[in-house]
Design brief:
alpha/beta, seven-stranded parallel sheet, three-stranded antiparallel sheet, 7 helices, globular
Amino acid sequence: MMTGHIEIFPDPATLARHVAEWITSAALEARDTFRVSLSGGSTPKTLYQLLASDEFRNQFPWQHVSWYFGDERFVHYDSPDSNYRMVREAMFAKAPVPPENIQPIPVDGSPDAAAQQYERTLQETYGATTLDRARPFFDVTLLGLGPDGHTASLLPGEPVLEERKRWVAAVSHGRPEVRITMTYPVIESSRRVAFLVAGREKAPVFRDIRAGGSGVPAARVRPVGELFWFVDRAAAGES
């Protein structure tokens, strides 16, 4: 059976509000810099809009939170396909986020060079080139779930699924769309990993993961800290 905490909500809006309260509480309790790895997608976008809204903006400790990206399409930041653009428009542009606290994935040069550059950024922040299970990099890692079982840009059948040394890698094997993604080791180096899953189209893959034995990329995430699944009723197959 699936390991981790599972919470099911009536709809995506209720799910996003719960996660906004959850991450705000965790950030307020942190004594040092609070590091968050962000996910793309519509449900996280609702979360980001909530955090920047009047309800949360004035209570969230923006000055002490650093933002990273779990994956990115290798497109210009102004592209409608850019995760950075989505988060910028939903949250960064509407909240008092110090610019130096935002660490987007580079999208210039070659994909491999950009991945190496982001890896160096992470390692310089961490202060080491090897991850220590006793010292997680992130306080919260947000992840989505694709209908095919992918998470971040850990796509089915890609060589990156077996990568355990690199922290960041380009994903372009046999695909027209190039992406850059964090690999399992750094995704799993988190005190809390939270999947945000909404929509009826996710129900079959979530059912299989929940039952255990699924080999899809999302099912293979094993964080050093706690694992959370925040799911709406449609994705849980309850409506």
